[in-house]
Amino acid sequence: MRNIFKTGITTILATIVLSMYSKTIAQANYTFDEVQIDQNQVIAMAMPLSELQGLYSYKLIVLEQRSNERACWSESETGLYPILVEPLLLNFNFTGICGRATDSNGYSIRVDGNDLSMSYRLTLQNVDGEIKLFGISLSGDKVLVGRTGGISDGMMKIILEPGWQFTKRSYQDKTLGHFYFSYDSFAAKQSAIEQKIAEIESQIPYFSELDDNIL
Questions:
Q1: What total of structural domains would you count in the chain?
Q2: Which residue has better confidence, 57 or 215?
Protein backbone atom coordinates (compact mmCIF):
# COMPACT_ATOMS: atom_id res chain seq x y z
CA MET A 1 0.00 0.00 0.00
CA ARG A 2 2.88 2.36 0.82
CA ASN A 3 4.45 1.74 -2.60
CA ILE A 4 1.14 2.40 -4.37
CA PHE A 5 0.69 5.64 -2.43
CA LYS A 6 4.25 6.70 -3.18
CA THR A 7 3.82 5.95 -6.89
CA GLY A 8 0.59 7.94 -7.02
CA ILE A 9 2.18 10.96 -5.33
CA THR A 10 5.17 10.78 -7.69
CA THR A 11 2.90 10.74 -10.75
CA ILE A 12 0.87 13.70 -9.48
CA LEU A 13 3.98 15.74 -8.70
CA ALA A 14 5.49 14.97 -12.10
CA THR A 15 2.31 16.10 -13.84
CA ILE A 16 2.20 19.31 -11.80
CA VAL A 17 5.82 20.07 -12.68
CA LEU A 18 5.05 19.41 -16.34
CA SER A 19 2.07 21.77 -16.25
CA MET A 20 4.08 24.52 -14.53
CA TYR A 21 6.97 24.11 -16.94
CA SER A 22 4.67 24.35 -19.93
CA LYS A 23 3.51 27.79 -18.82
CA THR A 24 7.07 29.15 -18.64
CA ILE A 25 7.67 28.46 -22.33
CA ALA A 26 4.24 29.39 -23.62
CA GLN A 27 5.53 32.43 -25.47
CA ALA A 28 7.91 30.26 -27.51
CA ASN A 29 5.08 28.01 -28.68
CA TYR A 30 2.35 30.46 -29.65
CA THR A 31 2.43 29.44 -33.33
CA PHE A 32 0.48 26.18 -33.16
CA ASP A 33 -3.03 25.55 -31.90
CA GLU A 34 -4.84 22.23 -31.48
CA VAL A 35 -8.15 20.79 -32.60
CA GLN A 36 -10.25 18.08 -30.98
CA ILE A 37 -10.62 14.76 -32.80
CA ASP A 38 -12.72 11.63 -32.33
CA GLN A 39 -10.84 9.50 -29.81
CA ASN A 40 -12.29 6.33 -31.33
CA GLN A 41 -10.65 7.12 -34.66
CA VAL A 42 -7.10 7.21 -33.28
CA ILE A 43 -4.90 4.64 -31.60
CA ALA A 44 -1.40 4.62 -30.14
CA MET A 45 0.49 1.36 -30.02
CA ALA A 46 3.83 -0.06 -28.92
CA MET A 47 5.58 -2.07 -31.62
CA PRO A 48 8.33 -4.48 -30.47
CA LEU A 49 11.65 -3.98 -32.23
CA SER A 50 14.97 -5.78 -31.77
CA GLU A 51 15.58 -8.03 -28.79
CA LEU A 52 18.73 -7.55 -26.71
CA GLN A 53 19.55 -9.91 -23.85
CA GLY A 54 15.94 -11.02 -23.58
CA LEU A 55 14.52 -7.48 -23.59
CA TYR A 56 12.72 -5.75 -26.45
CA SER A 57 12.91 -2.11 -27.39
CA TYR A 58 9.65 -0.53 -28.56
CA LYS A 59 8.56 2.00 -31.14
CA LEU A 60 5.60 4.33 -30.67
CA ILE A 61 3.17 4.41 -33.60
CA VAL A 62 -0.04 6.42 -33.94
CA LEU A 63 -2.74 5.42 -36.45
CA GLU A 64 -5.82 7.38 -37.51
CA GLN A 65 -8.95 6.22 -39.30
CA ARG A 66 -9.62 9.02 -41.81
CA SER A 67 -12.42 7.40 -43.81
CA ASN A 68 -14.73 4.40 -43.50
CA GLU A 69 -13.64 2.85 -46.78
CA ARG A 70 -11.55 0.17 -45.04
CA ALA A 71 -10.54 -0.51 -41.45
CA CYS A 72 -7.02 0.67 -40.66
CA TRP A 73 -6.53 -1.69 -37.72
CA SER A 74 -8.27 -4.29 -35.57
CA GLU A 75 -8.04 -4.93 -31.84
CA SER A 76 -8.18 -8.07 -29.73
CA GLU A 77 -10.89 -8.55 -27.12
CA THR A 78 -11.38 -5.53 -24.89
CA GLY A 79 -10.81 -6.24 -21.20
CA LEU A 80 -7.96 -8.68 -21.77
CA TYR A 81 -4.67 -6.85 -21.44
CA PRO A 82 -2.58 -6.08 -23.25
CA ILE A 83 -4.94 -5.36 -26.14
CA LEU A 84 -3.21 -6.56 -29.31
CA VAL A 85 -3.41 -4.50 -32.49
CA GLU A 86 -3.27 -5.74 -36.07
CA PRO A 87 -2.26 -2.94 -38.49
CA LEU A 88 -4.60 -3.76 -41.37
CA LEU A 89 -3.43 -0.71 -43.35
CA LEU A 90 -0.28 -2.62 -44.30
CA ASN A 91 -2.42 -4.80 -46.57
CA PHE A 92 -3.60 -2.05 -48.94
CA ASN A 93 -2.85 1.42 -50.26
CA PHE A 94 -4.07 3.47 -47.31
CA THR A 95 -3.58 6.92 -48.85
CA GLY A 96 -6.55 9.07 -47.85
CA ILE A 97 -7.95 6.27 -45.72
CA CYS A 98 -5.51 6.00 -42.83
CA GLY A 99 -3.07 8.36 -41.16
CA ARG A 100 0.17 7.17 -39.59
CA ALA A 101 2.84 8.78 -37.41
CA THR A 102 6.03 6.90 -36.55
CA ASP A 103 8.38 9.45 -34.95
CA SER A 104 8.62 12.86 -33.29
CA ASN A 105 7.86 14.58 -36.58
CA GLY A 106 4.36 13.12 -36.36
CA TYR A 107 3.55 13.34 -32.64
CA SER A 108 4.48 15.26 -29.51
CA ILE A 109 3.21 16.41 -26.10
CA ARG A 110 0.93 19.37 -25.43
CA VAL A 111 -0.03 20.48 -21.92
CA ASP A 112 -2.71 23.02 -21.01
CA GLY A 113 -2.57 24.50 -24.49
CA ASN A 114 1.22 24.67 -24.75
CA ASP A 115 3.25 22.80 -27.37
CA LEU A 116 6.15 20.98 -25.65
CA SER A 117 7.61 19.31 -28.72
CA MET A 118 10.94 21.09 -28.26
CA SER A 119 11.32 20.29 -24.56
CA TYR A 120 9.74 16.86 -24.04
CA ARG A 121 10.18 13.61 -25.93
CA LEU A 122 7.95 10.55 -25.89
CA THR A 123 9.49 7.19 -25.05
CA LEU A 124 8.30 3.65 -24.32
CA GLN A 125 9.76 1.68 -21.41
CA ASN A 126 9.21 -1.79 -19.99
CA VAL A 127 8.25 -1.21 -16.36
CA ASP A 128 6.74 -3.70 -13.92
CA GLY A 129 5.46 -6.11 -16.55
CA GLU A 130 3.90 -3.61 -18.93
CA ILE A 131 4.97 -1.04 -21.49
CA LYS A 132 4.57 2.54 -20.30
CA LEU A 133 4.60 5.69 -22.41
CA PHE A 134 6.47 8.54 -20.76
CA GLY A 135 7.11 12.14 -21.61
CA ILE A 136 10.69 12.97 -20.61
CA SER A 137 12.01 16.53 -20.41
CA LEU A 138 15.49 17.72 -21.34
CA SER A 139 16.35 17.75 -17.63
CA GLY A 140 15.10 14.18 -17.13
CA ASP A 141 11.73 14.88 -15.51
CA LYS A 142 9.28 12.12 -16.36
CA VAL A 143 5.49 12.04 -16.62
CA LEU A 144 3.33 8.99 -17.35
CA VAL A 145 1.17 9.41 -20.47
CA GLY A 146 -0.18 5.89 -21.04
CA ARG A 147 0.33 2.16 -20.56
CA THR A 148 -0.46 -1.19 -22.16
CA GLY A 149 -1.66 -3.00 -19.03
CA GLY A 150 0.51 -6.02 -19.84
CA ILE A 151 3.16 -7.25 -22.21
CA SER A 152 3.24 -9.36 -25.38
CA ASP A 153 5.47 -9.95 -28.38
CA GLY A 154 2.87 -8.33 -30.68
CA MET A 155 1.75 -4.75 -31.22
CA MET A 156 0.01 -3.47 -28.09
CA LYS A 157 -2.56 -0.72 -27.64
CA ILE A 158 -1.55 2.11 -25.33
CA ILE A 159 -4.30 3.21 -22.93
CA LEU A 160 -3.93 6.89 -22.08
CA GLU A 161 -3.88 8.01 -18.46
CA PRO A 162 -6.75 10.16 -17.09
CA GLY A 163 -6.56 13.72 -18.40
CA TRP A 164 -4.70 12.74 -21.58
CA GLN A 165 -6.28 12.61 -25.04
CA PHE A 166 -5.41 12.71 -28.73
CA THR A 167 -5.67 16.03 -30.55
CA LYS A 168 -4.16 17.36 -33.77
CA ARG A 169 -1.93 20.34 -34.40
CA SER A 170 -3.38 23.26 -36.32
CA TYR A 171 -1.92 26.41 -37.83
CA GLN A 172 -3.97 29.45 -38.82
CA ASP A 173 -7.19 27.38 -38.64
CA LYS A 174 -5.74 24.61 -40.82
CA THR A 175 -5.57 21.12 -39.31
CA LEU A 176 -2.18 19.47 -39.79
CA GLY A 177 -1.18 15.81 -39.72
CA HIS A 178 0.76 16.11 -36.45
CA PHE A 179 -0.79 14.37 -33.41
CA TYR A 180 -0.67 15.66 -29.87
CA PHE A 181 -0.77 13.62 -26.70
CA SER A 182 -2.62 16.44 -24.98
CA TYR A 183 -3.08 16.92 -21.24
CA ASP A 184 -5.72 19.18 -19.71
CA SER A 185 -5.24 19.64 -15.97
CA PHE A 186 -8.81 20.90 -15.46
CA ALA A 187 -10.29 17.94 -17.33
CA ALA A 188 -8.11 15.59 -15.28
CA LYS A 189 -9.48 17.05 -12.03
CA GLN A 190 -13.05 16.71 -13.31
CA SER A 191 -12.40 13.11 -14.31
CA ALA A 192 -11.02 12.32 -10.86
CA ILE A 193 -14.12 13.82 -9.21
CA GLU A 194 -16.47 11.87 -11.49
CA GLN A 195 -14.58 8.66 -10.79
CA LYS A 196 -14.88 9.22 -7.05
CA ILE A 197 -18.62 9.84 -7.36
CA ALA A 198 -19.01 6.65 -9.40
CA GLU A 199 -17.15 4.68 -6.72
CA ILE A 200 -19.46 6.04 -4.03
CA GLU A 201 -22.59 5.33 -6.08
CA SER A 202 -21.43 1.78 -6.74
CA GLN A 203 -21.63 1.13 -2.99
CA ILE A 204 -25.27 2.25 -2.69
CA PRO A 205 -26.86 -1.07 -3.84
CA TYR A 206 -24.63 -2.88 -1.36
CA PHE A 207 -25.91 -0.85 1.56
CA SER A 208 -29.51 -1.23 0.32
CA GLU A 209 -29.12 -5.00 0.37
CA LEU A 210 -27.82 -4.82 3.93
CA ASP A 211 -30.90 -2.84 5.00
CA ASP A 212 -33.22 -5.39 3.37
CA ASN A 213 -31.45 -8.27 5.11
CA ILE A 214 -31.70 -6.53 8.46
CA LEU A 215 -35.45 -5.98 8.00
A1: 2
A2: 57
